[in-house]
Amino acid sequence: MIVQFSILTPILLAISLGYALLAILYRDRWSEELKGQVTLFLFFAAVWALGDALIYASADPESQLAWTTLSFVGATGVPVSLFLISCIYVGINRFNTLQKASVLFIIPIISIILVGTNSLHGLFYSGVTEQHVLNTIIWEVSYGPLYPIHPFYSYFLIASSVGILIYKYTASTPLIRRQIHWLIIGIMIPFIANILYLNRIIASPGLDWTPFLLLVTAGILVFGNAHLRLFSIVPLARSRIIESMEDGIIVLDQDHRIVDMNRSATIIAGDTFKDLEGTDGKVLLERWGALNATQSALIHRQDGDEIFEVRQNPLKDSKGTVFGRILFIRDITEVYRARTALQQANKKLNLLSSITRHDILNQITAILGYGSLIEESLPEDPETRSFMNKLNEATRTIQRQITFTADYQNLGVREPEWQHIDFVAQCAKNEIDLGEITLDCTTGALEVYADPLLQKVFSNLFHNTVKHAEHATRISISFQQEEDFGILIVEDNGIGIPDRMKERIFTHIRGSQIGLGLYLIREILSITNITISEDGRYGYGARFLIRMPKNSFRNAPDSDNLG
């Protein structure tokens, strides 16, 4: 070996040492996903710089070609490590283990063997030419027939890295785009220089600037991680979060085939993704009893010990075309048990309330009966009879209030449901003797999502008309739709309600049967965020407006949309 002094040698040795120190000092500052890949990149960069440093320290072609083998370890390893970093960054897990990543090193290993044995076959380098760069003898090589294997493969990896980063860029937030922008710069700068070197375009033939410019890549990786939030929890942890979620997620394509699912979903399904991939998702839904559920369904597993809720949402493109479906599966065992226990407790409380109310009403009936007997035996004293009448009226008021609680105790006990307005109104009509008053309902196929006590709303409104609407001959129910809500209108042609009473009729402090009934109406409707008000003109009839949010009304599923 003939040794020569070159200014490039100490510079490259310092750079090589810098790469090594960065790998050691910053090893614990990377996430678990990236720690190995970034360390690998810094290692290969250090080897590349070290190999070139020794090349420039040697003046004879034999020694330079020998050190080229060491340099080639770094030159072939850097593209692979950058490709692995890019894959991890965008969430591609195909090469996330050593066994999976090892396939990427097959061609680099072959290239290194060809360089090391070139003196035997001359297939990688076919000859050398002496060049002088910065007072340094550099033996510039001529490429052999097998040399293109190395650059083609390396540039393919680099192009793939940039391609997947650009793809990620188009579907990312501004913060992630800034990260990707710098990462692409870090990858492209040294390899543009390498392309210029290999094609003899730069002004210094034989001098490869790539190990120097890899400092840009290393700087972006190391300092960008600390200051630009490069490789922060977003988007690195995106796939990891999905995988670590307790909720199961299954993705179906437009033909209902399973194309993806997380670990929790495989546990719930009782099979591996490898076995379920590409199978018909309908089979799984049918097994769970959720095949015909448009939005959600419950799964009971292992004799009811585990209960899951399955929710389905369509996947749509920018034009609104459905191209698949995503299933969310949540373990609601504890919630379901708590809800069941609460329902049981409510049933027992309602039973106790019903028994107690029944006993109280029996006693009130007895009091009223004895009161009538006492009233018959009272002397014809106006003051005494006045006291007795007040006592009986107070007792009847208590009776009405206790009766009212029979309706109120069932409020909110059962879940809201879709109810056909015309059918509910007719049922309410059968509860109330309308006499000569006619009912005209023009709501058609309208359904409202409300508490099952919705029928009480109409029966109370009808009762209010019968008892207080003087000369009323008609009750009408109609519907009109506004932008953000629908309005159900219940009106009569009676005397109407004075302006000062329009709000007071819905309060429970009035102490009359009407007030309690209309108060109950407001409470029933409020469960599903429906409101009621009265805006009729006094002297022309009462007009109740029932305002419903846009998700609380619809046409029956087999009819046209509202509009």
Please, could you describe this protein's structure?
This protein starts with 7 loop residues before the first helix and ends in an 8-residue tail after the last strand. 29% of the residues are buried. With 563 residues, it is an alpha+beta fold. It has 4 domains: 8-238, Rhopdopsin 7-helix transmembrane proteins (Up-down Bundle), CATH 1.20.1070; 245-331, 2-Layer Sandwich (Beta-Lactamase); 336-408; 417-555, Heat Shock Protein 90 (2-Layer Sandwich). 53% of the residues lie in helices and 17% in strands. Strand 5 (296-301) and strand 6 (306-316) form a beta hairpin. The strands form 4 sheets. The protein has a 5-stranded antiparallel beta sheet with strand order 4-3-7-6-5. A 5-stranded mixed beta sheet has the order 9-11-12-14-13, with helices on one face. The chain has helices at residues 8-25, 32-57, 61-90, 98-101, 106-116, 118-121, 149-170, 174-198, 210-227, 233-244, 263-269, 273-276, 281-288, 333-377, 382-408, 421-431, 454-468, 513-526, and strands at 125-133, 136-143, 248-253, 258-261, 296-301, 306-316, 322-331, 417-420, 438-441, 446-450, 474-481, 485-492, 531-534, 543-549, 553-555. The longest helix is centred in the middle third of the chain and has 45 residues, at 333-377. The model is unreliable at 510-515 (pLDDT under 50). Helix 16 (421-431) packs across helix 17.
End-to-end distance: 91 Å
Helix content: 40-55%
Number of helices: 18
Rounded mean pLDDT is 83
CATH topology tier name of the largest domain: Rhopdopsin 7-helix transmembrane proteins
Apparent shape: rod-shaped
Supply the CATH architecture of the largest domain: Up-down Bundle
